[in-house]
Amino acid sequence: MAAKDLYEKDFYKVLGLPKTAEADEIKKKYRTLARELHPDKTKGDSVREEKFKEVSEAYEILSDAKKRAEYDEARSLFERGGFRAPQGGQNFQGGDFNDLFGGGNPQDIFANLFGGGGRRGPRKGQDLQTEATITFRESVFGTTLELKLTSDRGVPQNVSARVPAGVNDGAKIRVKGKGAYGEAGPGDLFILLHVKPHPIFSRKSENLTIVLPVTFTEAALGADIKVPTLSGDDVTVRLAPGTPNGRVLRVKGRGITKGSTTGDLLVTVEVQVPQRVESKAAEALRTFEKETASIDVRADFISKASI
């Protein structure tokens, strides 16, 4: 925490205590407020959760005699208007800031108040991690996970976690206040996501991809073909006459929406060759072969072999 943020905060006011409060009074008041504001009781009330953090922060300083004395001195100077945000250890009513605390970088002194130099007092609980598997569709459109976890206190707890739209396989989402319990509040829960593959859809960045099977006739003569989307409706793509195998067609705006960005649907054409050709169809193909005999599709292929 920056020094300016520290000395501008009135930790006694946060706890609702006078500056003359004894250590036992501070401890008793903190425990009362911590029970009232604990995230397990406030259930997603962001205002009360923020208050809980402020109370824990105040107790961390005021419960330690050395930190409290240093804070009181800096706070007193600030209230008299003589304190300026320290830069290089100087500027308080014309004197040297180092003289006030007996030398050293003032930034280090304020950092020590918040655990930078041997932390004491209540600690936040450890962060925990679990795993969850979601479908490809859920990864694209988002979903809400309902998990049942066993806490470090032995009582199972239900955790509801929102998965945002557009998450990737291997992504982690954070659920605040659902980690292990600590005197200064619980840690957080991190959920590692595994995304099941889809039978026909894949993703490339924010674009969805799909392979579209087409017939030789459709590719040769051109066609309008319906393509399914993850939204449930169909879109129509137009194949130009002579569309080659592997050509990629783009359908704008039918990809993954992530924030203010929406990707596209990329459709790769895959020309299907029938395994068996019967009677009239075979005859038609032989006629086609005769009619196109003057076209050598391997001319460039052969010439490039000698390069």
Automatic annotation (TrEMBL):
One of its GO terms (biological process) is protein refolding. GO terms for cellular component: cytoplasm. Keywords: Stress response. GO terms for molecular function: unfolded protein binding. The keyword Protein biosynthesis does not apply. Residues 10-75 form the J domain. InterPro entries: DnaJ_C, DnaJ_domain, DnaJ_domain_CS, HSP40/DnaJ_pept-bd, J_dom_sf. Pfam families: DnaJ, DnaJ_C. This is Unannotated protein.
